[in-house]
Automatic annotation (TrEMBL):
Classification lineage: Bacteria, Bacillati, Actinomycetota, Actinomycetes, Streptosporangiales
CDD domains on file: ASKHA_ATPase_ROK
Name listed for the protein in its UniProt record: ROK family protein
Pfam family for this entry, one: ROK
Family assignment from sequence similarity: Belongs to the ROK (NagC/XylR) family.
Length: 373
């Protein structure tokens, strides 16, 4: 299923070559998948010297995934096919601080409505993926001690979503999903990647040897690394001088408010920078230096192939330029010699793409059930 869904194989011969299975075994399994309505076989694929093989693809009736990337005040909703390609997209406004039950119920209802609006009501939903702006325990699907999500601590998000939607659920940190989506969509040839998400908060996803590295759930969480600062600022986590307390979109908004400049979102900060407002430009450059200081140690330690900067604040060019300058100035030459530092190529839907990819990993049950029928 994954080989066909991701386009790595489009014929029985290619499946046999990539899987190492005998051609007869592959043919039997393909026939089972076609009979179950998961595969379709049509047209003719590329020839490797003999007769042109019939081309395999996922059947439309195979199903879709419903995906939501949640922020503090909005969610990006999507219906994606089993290859992770978005079929429908929309945005939903809400306040994550109202609590998990109300938020997740409105998100799931919004996802079903989106599918219906685009003529996908009768296509089976095979799984739901939720990206959250907080730490997620991969073993339990619970949010653990989030600093900006009151009422969510230890809430069983995965169990709630699966129960409400009636299908398997994937719950993951939003920066992790962004890392997977960015890797799959834009950097598939690279094995080791760091993806930084700069928005209202700060997150980081890590790809190691081509796979998402979760650790025990906190891998890549740089938001609460302590920094050196002239003025102490208490973080929402309860500790002083975390990176997020000084350099996140929320921190920049608070700093600008001290200058009499009111902003509600990171996008508004980017607009001020684009318009050349000096206080905003100075603020994002200061944030860039602080972020660069933290990333310098990580680049030296991990030595990634690329560092990708995403999230709404990545559109503030002075911030990205400052991060890049600090890293190239302070990292070991060997760590930066072949390092590429770039802004996101997958854009605002990177997390959606990441969730679509990872959902195949939690889909074994319904595939088995479809074959049994």
């Amino acid at each position: 299923m994954r080989l066909v869904a991701t386009g790595q194989a489009e014929s029985r011969a290619e499946l046999a070559r990539l899987s190492g299975l005998a051609a007869s075994s592959v043919s039997l399994r393909v026939e089972q998948l076609i009979a179950a309505g998961l595969f379709a076989e049509e047209g003719a694929g590329a020839s490797r010297g003999g007769r042109r093989p019939r081309r395999l693809r996922l059947a439309r009736a195979a199903g879709v995934f419903l995906v939501a990337d949640l922020g503090a005040h909005h969610a990006r909703l999507a219906v994606v096919d089993l290859a992770g390609t978005p079929l429908a997209l929309s945005d939903l406004a809400f306040d994550i601080a109202v609590g998990p039950k109300e938020t997740l119920t409105s998100v799931i209802d919004g996802l079903h409505a989106l599918a219906a609006e685009h003529g996908l009501r009768d296509v089976p939903v095979r799984g739901v993926g939720i990206g959250l702006p907080g730490p997620v325990d991969p073993a339990t699907g619970q949010v653990v001690s989030p600093s900006r999500m009151p009422g969510w601590n230890d809430f069983p998000v995965r169990d709630f979503v699966a129960g409400h939607a009636g299908v398997p659920a994937l719950v993951e940190n939003d920066a992790n999903l962004m890392a997977v989506g960015e890797h799959r969509a834009a950097w598939p040839a690279l094995d080791n990647l760091m993806v930084i998400k700069l928005g209202s908060g700060i997150g980081c996803g890590v790809i190691v040897d081509g796979r998402l590295h979760r650790g025990r759930g906190a891998a890549g969480d740089i938001s609460h690394v302590r920094i050196l600062s002239e003025a102490t600022v208490d973080c929402s986590c309860g500790h002083p001088d975390c990176l997020e307390a000084h350099a996140s979109g929320a921190a920049l908004a608070a700093s600008l408010a001290g200058h009499g400049i009111a902003v509600d979102t990171p996008s508004e900060i980017v607009a001020l920078v684009t318009d050349g407002v000096p206080q905003a430009t100075s603020a994002v450059r200061t944030a860039g230096r602080l972020i660069g200081d933290v990333l310098t140690a990580l680049v030296n330690f991990f030595n990634p192939d690329a560092l990708v900067i995403g999230g709404s604040l990545s559109l503030a060019e002075p911030l990205v330029a400052t991060v890049r300058g600090v890293i190239y100035e302070r990292c070991l030459p060997l760590a930066t010699r072949n390092l590429e530092i770039a802004t996101s190529r997958a854009g605002r839907d990177a997390s959606i793409l990441g969730a679509g990819h990872l959902l195949l990993d939690v889909s074994d049950t319904w595939i088995d059930q479809a074959l049994d029928r």
